[in-house]
TrEMBL record:
<dbReference type="GO" id="GO:0034220">
    <property type="term" value="P:monoatomic ion transmembrane transport"/>
</dbReference>
<keyword id="KW-1003">Cell membrane</keyword>
<keyword id="KW-0813">Transport</keyword>
<feature type="transmembrane region" description="Helical">
    <location>
        <begin position="145"/>
        <end position="169"/>
    </location>
</feature>
<dbReference type="GO" id="GO:0005886">
    <property type="term" value="C:plasma membrane"/>
</dbReference>
<dbReference type="Pfam" id="PF00876">
    <property type="entry name" value="Innexin"/>
</dbReference>
<keyword id="KW-0812">Transmembrane</keyword>
<feature type="transmembrane region" description="Helical">
    <location>
        <begin position="55"/>
        <end position="75"/>
    </location>
</feature>
<dbReference type="GO" id="GO:0005243">
    <property type="term" value="F:gap junction channel activity"/>
</dbReference>
<keyword id="KW-0965">Cell junction</keyword>
<dbReference type="GO" id="GO:0005921">
    <property type="term" value="C:gap junction"/>
</dbReference>
<keyword id="KW-0407">Ion channel</keyword>
<dbReference type="InterPro" id="IPR000990">
    <property type="entry name" value="Innexin"/>
</dbReference>
<comment type="similarity">
    <text>Belongs to the pannexin family.</text>
</comment>
<keyword id="KW-0406">Ion transport</keyword>
<keyword id="KW-0303">Gap junction</keyword>
<dbReference type="GO" id="GO:0007602">
    <property type="term" value="P:phototransduction"/>
</dbReference>
C-alpha cells in the first residue's frame, strides 16, 4: 500500500472507532460520509419521510409474502385438478369415516396401483399384448410430500395473515403502539 492509502485507512479507522463508542455517538450525532467528515443529522421532515417510505416498503413486502403463500396454494390446487384445497382436511377426517363407504383421498389423488399394457414380440414375430398391474412407487412418496406441503402452506398462511393483522394494528392504532412501547420499556 502507498503511504497515502495507509493514512486514509488509519484516519478512517480512528473516526469509526470514535463514532462507534457511545460517547462518540452522543458527541457527534451524525454519520461518516466518504470524505471522513462528520455530517449533521438529517432534518426532522426528511427523517420522517424516509421512515414512512421504509415502513410502506416493509409492509408491502409482508403483504407480498402472504400473496406468494396464497398463490402457491392456488397453483398447487390448479396443478392437482382442484383437489389440493381440501386435501389435508380430507386426510384428517379419513379415519373417522364409515369403513365401507370411505375412499382414501391420498390414493384417489395419487393412485398406487394401475393397469399396465405391455406389448412385445412373440415367437412368431407378431406383437403380443400383456395386461398386468403396476405399482407406482413414486405416488406413495408423493402423497406424503403433498400432505406435508398442505400443512406447511396452511401454517404459513395462518402465521403470515396473523402477523399482517398485528402489523396493521401497530400502524393504525396509536394506543396499541403506546402499550407496546410500555411493555418494551418495562422489560
Amino acid at each position: 500500500m502507498s503511504d497515502g492509502v495507509k493514512g486514509k485507512v488509519c484516519v478512517g479507522a480512528s473516526v469509526a472507532v470514535r463514532l462507534l463508542t457511545p460517547a462518540g455517538l452522543c458527541q457527534h450525532g451524525g454519520t461518516v460520509d466518504e470524505d471522513v467528515t462528520i455530517s449533521p443529522p438529517l432534518p426532522t421532515r426528511r427523517r420522517e419521510a424516509l421512515t414512512t417510505t421504509s415502513l410502506r416498503r416493509f409492509f408491502l413486502c409482508e403483504v407480498l409474502c402472504l400473496v406468494v403463500v396464497v398463490g402457491n396454494i392456488y397453483f398447487t390446487d390448479l396443478f392437482l385438478g382442484g383437489t389440493f384445497l381440501t386435501y389435508g382436511t380430507e386426510v384428517i377426517s379419513f379415519p373417522d369415516m364409515d369403513p365401507e363407504k370411505r375412499v382414501d383421498p391420498m390414493t384417489r389423488i395419487f393412485p398406487r396401483v394401475t393397469k399396465c399394457t405391455f406389448r412385445k414380440f412373440g415367437s412368431s414375430g407378431t406383437i403380443e399384448t400383456h395386461d398386468t398391474m403396476c405399482v407406482l412407487a413414486v405416488n406413495i412418496i408423493n402423497e406424503k410430500i403433498f400432505i406435508f406441503i398442505w400443512f406447511w402452506l396452511v401454517i404459513l398462511t395462518t402465521i403470515t395473515a396473523g402477523w399482517l393483522v398485528y402489523r396493521l394494528l401497530i400502524i393504525l392504532s396509536s394506543d396499541v403502539r403506546f402499550r407496546l412501547l410500555q411493555v418494551c420499556v418495562c422489560v
